[in-house]
Structures are given as structure tokens and as C-alpha cells.
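May I ask for a sample protein chain and its fold as C-alpha cells?
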Amino acid sequence: MISLLLLFITFSLSKQCSEYTTNEIDTVDSAFECIESIETTEKENNDIITGLKYYLEAYVFKDILKNPPQPSFSNNYYEKVDIDAELNKINTKTTSMYDFYSQIKNLIISTRDGHLAFNVDKDLNKPNSELTNFFYFLPFEINIDNDKKMYLIPRKSLGGIPIDVPEIDDNQNIAVKTINGEDPFNIIREFGKKYLGLKCPHAQFTEARSAISFGSLSDTPLTKEYLNTPITITWENGESVTINYSIFKLSTPNKSLKELLQGEEVKQGIKPKLTPEEIKSRKEIGKRMKTKQGIIERYKSDDNNVGCLLTDNKINTFFIVSFDPKDAYVKSYEDTISKCIDLFDSNKYPIQVIFPKNGGGYGYLSRWVEKIISPYDDVDFIGSLRVSDFTEVIIKTGMGTGLYDPETCEVREKGINPQTLGEWYTKPKIIKYGDVEHKVSQPSLDKGGMMKLMKNPRKPTEIVVYTDSFCYSACSLVTKGLKEWGGAILVGYDGDPNGKDEEFEVGLSPTSVIGLNEIDKDNIFTQYGYELGISVTETYRFNYEYNESIPREFLTDMIDERVNIYSDPDIIDIFEEETKKIIEKYQTKCNPKNKRLVKRDEKCDKEINIEHGHGGYECGDNGEWSTKCVLAYCDDGYKFDYINNKCIEDVCVYPPTDDGTPSMTVNLVMIIIGIITLIL
């Protein structure tokens, strides 16, 4: 009788999903009554695991992860993951969708590749889409000042529902001393390490700083136990408070996290309290931004995600929040970049480029930006695909028509859906990582098109590029390219205030990714309400002998300089002051670990005496510019062969004829177009 009564009480107190009729803030236990009631079946689970095993054969890093090459500074920087073995461990007998889904998400996270993604697809409106309306949150956001102190900014409301934690409100101008008795930054580090699929600890920290206090349970399926663990905060004035996570249930189906947060920012202005000097500075910046031509009104707006301005301090500022404009705004995005080029060409002042949590996007836009910053960079990526049955399907659906033979510049596959693939794929390369065999297609070129460039390009020592290490995918293609070609001074900001500078990467995941639905619309995951993204192309260093064995995904590219900037990047003058210092420093000093960044000088052209080559002074081991002249870059139509220290003809400009001699046809066409343009 007592057992039946307890069962009745438990059932009567449980929260059914249908009971959520409006936006609601709930306890973790109550919300999980609904979340854990979303069911799956053993058949569904087995179907999904079988599907993952098939489709992930095309995952280009599947072999390498079993025994990844490590950088010189660590023996375990890249984690070892045997994907098939881990898939076999997943409990397919569970009937809890959240339990099953979390196991897969944890495996995906362990690869530390944000391109590899398995998510609930809310647009399919399957039973599991209910999960996308649940958000975890803490009653504050985290701000870090430029003196490496943590402050908690109260979250006043969410979804129109007030939130009141007086202790946080009263202490928002007091630095946090400890969280759970430890260094307050530890909780961010541990969250990033456990729940975010990013390789670099600084990138983990940058993302975790916001994700720890607010996120979607479908993106980050935290356990009920973690969410129920109390968090004790102690400020430097001795006051303390113990809080817990809460759950926000969104009543409007399929409304995005971004839309929800934007609404709250407008209503409550979630920003750190500023000193009078900072307020005055920000107001002055706001006035300048409103009066300058060519800058978008708010650089984080949905339409552009890009903007620029020339400040009163005579620094050209280029903001790029994303390379992924909404489809309706692609033309607007391109127009904005074109106006930025005109602005930079109107003066000779230095340029600072800021990538604030740039999550990537369209590759052609990132190539364009790199060529604007550093016009002599080669942006024709070199890459390979993993040999598998599903990779062959991907190629035959059209990917092969976008890949080119690096020796001839001929397209790999001239038509979509070929009956058989060429020898570039059927006679693959085999690379060994210890006892692990990695079978990939022969290297191919992924070509970048030419767009409007600057008429008055700056020297690399006149360009400062700021990265928070989160700079992802298409963004990292820019920063890694600039680092490899010596096209700019790469500077780290944000990240872990007390992390190691030598572990601060310029960006992550320089690979191409496909969404499974683009290739196979009737795949097994869509039937159950999921979507899958796969990294399919590994890219290599620009070695024109095409014999690289380690993809750039597993090659660390580190910053040249580090600055203590943790404020929002729209406080432009903070960046300006650092840019002026760095530009001045690089007049005489440099980063001895980066020999690719050269102080360009025409005086070196004669001394190096390399056909089509231009020179500059190499950075000395003492951190100062030497008097040694080295090859710095090559003329248009030629590529800088760094390994052999020479300029070689770009085969796509000078394609070989049948007898093997170079042809000038393409180049002549380019010259003719140039002449016509001049006449017009």
C-alpha cells in the first residue's frame, strides 16, 4: 500500500511535456521528467549506430585519431579515439532518447572536431525535437576584465521571466575570488575540456566562457547530476552565494538560441558595468561608428556579420564575425567587403583585423578576405579524401568536379555521377601513423576564384590580425594561411587569461565539411529526427611536391603576440592601442619562432636574385630583424616554393601543353581582360 502511494505521489509530481504551455523557468529535476520521457527503441538505436558506422567511413580523420601525431610541446595534445570501438560500447538497449543521444554526443566531443556533428534536427519535427526547446542557464554571464579578473553580470530575465539573485546583483563590480573553493577560471577550463569539441585549450576557454552559463541541452546534453551540483561563489569582499543551474523551457517551437538571446540583450542590455572612463570611451567610439561611412550599424547583425571603419587614431579596422551571411544577404555581405577595400585604398594607414568567435562559413569568402589582407598568398587548398564506399558516393554526386589535378590543373571528374573514378582516387596514397594505416586519395587542388582586391596593399608588418583561437573552419583557413605565408602579425586575445601562450593556436579545423542531407536526403537519421555533419577533406601545408603526410588539422600554428584583451571587440580603441604598440614594435623586433614573417624591402630583391621573387629581412634568433635577405613572395602567376626557395609557375595560369611545355593561353587571356578593362 505504501509503495503504491509513493508511486502515485511520484507520478503526480512529475512533469509531462504537454504541461509546458508558455515560456517557463523550471528546476532541473522537474524538467528532466519531460526530457527523460522522450523515448527511443532498441531498433532505432541499432539503426543509428549502423548508419554512423557506414557514413563515418568517409570521415577523413577516422584513422589518424587512433594514433594522432603530437606536437613537440606535448605527448597527448591530440586525444586517441577509436570511433568504431567507441560506437560498439554505446548502450543501444536504453529506451531513454536523452541517454542514448548523450552517449553519441560524448563520442563526437572526444574527437575534438567541431565539424563532426550529430544533432537533433528541429526542423524535422520528430518526437526528439522537443529537446531543442530546453536550455540550461545560470543567473549570470561571465566577464573578464583586462587585468585578468572575473566579474559576474546578473541575468535579469529570460524569455520575459524575471530572474533575481540579489547577491550577484550587489557584487557585479566585485571580482570573484573562488568558485567551489578554487581558482574561478578552473570551472570554465573543466567545462570546456569535458563538453566542447575543440582541440586548443584557449579555444575551449573562449567558447566555454559563454557556454557554461547558457546553452541548449540538444547542443550540450549535460547530465542531470552535473546540473544539480551546487556552485559556491565567493567574491573578494568575502561575500558568497550558492546557486544551481535552472532550466528554461521555450514554448515557441523551433525558436533558435540566438533569437532568444538577442531578445534578452535588447530588453535588459546584458553588458558589464563599466568605469566612467570606459563609458566615455565607448560613447566616443559609438559616435565615430555612426558617422563613418562603410561600416555596418552593428557588426554583429544577421545580414552582414562584417564591417570596417577608419578610426580617429588612423587605424583601419576590419571586423569579421562570420563568413556565413544569410542567403538573402550574401550580396550585401560582398558589397560591404568591397566598400571596406575602397576604404583601405583611400589611405595608407595600418590595418587591424578582428575575428570575434568567428565560426566560419563560405570558403570563397574566407579566401577573398585572405587575398585582401595578403594578396600574394596561395589560397588554392591542397587536400585529400579518405577512401571508402560512402566517399565514392560523395564524389559522384559532384564533389569531384570541384577538385583539380595539381600537376595539370585539369578537373578530377569532368561530369557528375561518373561510372568509374579516376586513378587519383582508385590508386590512393597510404600513410602510416605508427601501426595505423590511412588510405586517402592523391592530393587535389580546391581552387579559389579571384575577386576585387586592394590597389594599395599593406606590408605584413603593417597588418595585425586578432584571433581568439576559436576562429573556426573557414576562419582558420585565413589565419593559418596568413601564418604559413607570413602575411600578417597574428595576435591572440581572449582565451584563457592564465593559459600558456605557446599553446595559443591561431585557429582550428581547416577542413571542408558536408551535411549528410545534402548527399543522401533519405538517410536513416532523418527518419528519426537527426542530422550528421562530416569532415571529408584534410588539407595540407603548401608543399608543391605534394608529399605532405600530416594534415593541417594536426599541425599547430601559434600566434606571434598575445594581448590582455577580454572585453567585447566593439570597444575598438582598446585594440587600436595594442595595434599601434605592435606595429611600432615590429619596426625593429619580431617573433624568432616565425621565420615566415619577413620585413619586406625592395633592397633585398637584387640580393636574393630569384626570378619573379621579392625579398625582405629575416627575423633573427635574437628577436630582432637581421640583415639577411630572404625570398618573401612571388609575382602574380607564380607560387612561392618555400621548400626549394624559388618561384614556380602556377600551373592554373601556365598550364602545360601536350608536349609538356608551358602554355601562355590562360595568362594571355588575363592580360587581354586587363587591357580591355583599362580601355573601358
Summary: Residues 588-679 form one domain. The longest strand covers residues 530-539. The chain has a mean pLDDT of 88. The chain has 21 helices and 29 strands.
